[in-house]
Amino acid sequence: MRTRKRWFAAVLGVLALTLATVTTEAVVTPRPAQALDNGVARTPPMGWNTWNTFGCNINETLIRQMADTIVSTGLRDLGYKYVVVDDCWFNPNRDGQGNLQGDPQRFPSGMRALGDYLHARGLLFGIYQGPLDQTCAQYFDSYPGSTGSLNHEYQDARQFAAWGVDYLKYDWCSPTGSISEQVSRLSIMRDALKATGRPIVYSINSNSIHSKTGPQRNWSDVANLWRTTEDITNAWDTGQTNGYPMGIQNIVNVTVPMAGYAAPGGFNDPDMMEVGRGGMTDTEMRSHFALWAVMASPLMMGNDLRSASSGTLDILKNANLIAINQDTLGKQAVQVSNDGTRRVLAKPLANGDVAVALFNQGSSTTTVSTTAAAIGKGGSSFTLKDAWTNATSTSTGTISASVPAHGTVVYRVSGGSIVDPPTPTTFRLRSASAGRCVDVDRGTSTNGTGTLIWDCHTNANQQFTQDGQTLKVLGKCLDVPLTAVNGTRVQIWDCNGGTNQQWTFNSNGTVSNGRFPSLCLDVNGGASANGTPVILWSCHGGTNQRWSKS
Description:
Layout: H1 8-15, H2 24-28, E1 46-49, H3 51-54, H4 60-72, H5 75-78, E2 82-85, H6 111-120, E3 124-129, H7 136-139, H8 153-163, E4 167-171, H9 179-196, E5 201-205, E6 225-227, H10 248-255, E7 267-269, H11 282-294, E8 299-301, H12 310-316, H13 319-325, E9 334-338, E10 342-348, E11 354-360, E12 366-371, E13 377-378, E14 382-386, E15 392-395, E16 398-403, E17 408-414, E18 417-418, E19 426-427, E20 429-431, E21 437-440, E22 451-454, E23 464-467, E24 470-473, E25 476-479, E26 491-493, E27 503-505, E28 511-513, E29 519-523, E30 534-538, E31 547-549
Parallel strand pairs: 1-2, 1-8, 2-3, 3-4, 4-5, 5-6, 6-7
Antiparallel strand pairs: 9-10, 10-11, 11-17, 12-16, 13-18, 14-15, 14-17, 19-23, 20-31, 21-22, 23-24, 24-25, 25-26, 27-28, 29-30
Helix pairs in contact: 8-9, 11-13
């Protein structure tokens, strides 16, 4: 979905449409993984994208100027190599053979010539397209034509390869389609790109004007990069759980629990960066960059580099954070702790170091702390290097800093030994009595969808991620109504931080609710059949109230 104010009313209307129900069966058998075999994106791609600053107002002169600036500022030599031409680059009409063409006024030299220009400067060529009949700009009538790749996937892939394209951004941009249909349709282009024989980074966004399917599965069998949220905007916090538009803090909340999906060849994509575009304080922009770096996110700049300030370039050129982001282990930082204000993330690195982000989500300066043991380090002597200041210090185990509001201090921690690297806290909840797992009914992510027990499997509707005291699944939180009593069914709902969405794992295996601490997760009637509802009931410690993480 594109970031235009005049589209906002249309967006709200479209989002109100009822989407197709996602069945468990539809998600069970994804197509065979191929994207990770294409040899690209072994670390998160770095570069620049036209959209955030220029939207549809693009042409070949602008792209060439930006490419030259990437070279002259030293950004290319730090790893920023992909220059991605977003929506509105094409002739609104295909040629007589159905081939895509560049817009003759905007790109009179042609798209092949643009790719050659970029390659001659040691840069890489990225381009935009959509899997249905229209791109986003066309869908919103901001650009003419219907030149999406629907039924042209192999033809378009061959055209991109002939132009020397190295990166394809593929944007769903439609309210239609179940998640299984998205997987199927997006996989066609995956296979088409592979068939060209050219290594092309494949970046998808399944969320545009759609139910937010990004967090609902691991897309690494489909693409190299997959968007986790709706479109980013130039703001710290827009109050969105996962809707349009998304602030930095909101995107972090969605993306952190997905850490387990990241690996060389496939990464969560929290969208292009807003660094250098105003709208945030210097502290917030530094935090934005630091968090994208430790989350192993693509570092795609979105500002006008020709007029970038020295302060902006200092952030974008931070070699310490770039090295953390580009670490060959390809791990995303996992959450070590989060009390609602102080959040700690830890990213294991290939040489045994650990990058630790001390993030202050609050509105005033506070001390954020963790320990070497908590981030998986053993020993009694450690060296901490501040990624922003280059200052080094030593510690016997405490890792701590005074962090300003919305700030993030990042240390690279070396020394000691790797004892137990932090791992993503993703698990299934298995009933001791039934031997089956908590399951979101039919994999549906609609607010109010109930939970039940079902044969344990590995689909997203049984994969819970613990974030503090919340349990997240399908991009929502495990929830009970505010008026819950014995027998109330447990459901999912947009995460809101309420005590009715907080859960405590007790020593006897029961799981009690924060708002109703005398009520526990319970298999209704102690039954064991598939489909038995999961409810709240007075805590008694019976086997139908005991759960294990598996």
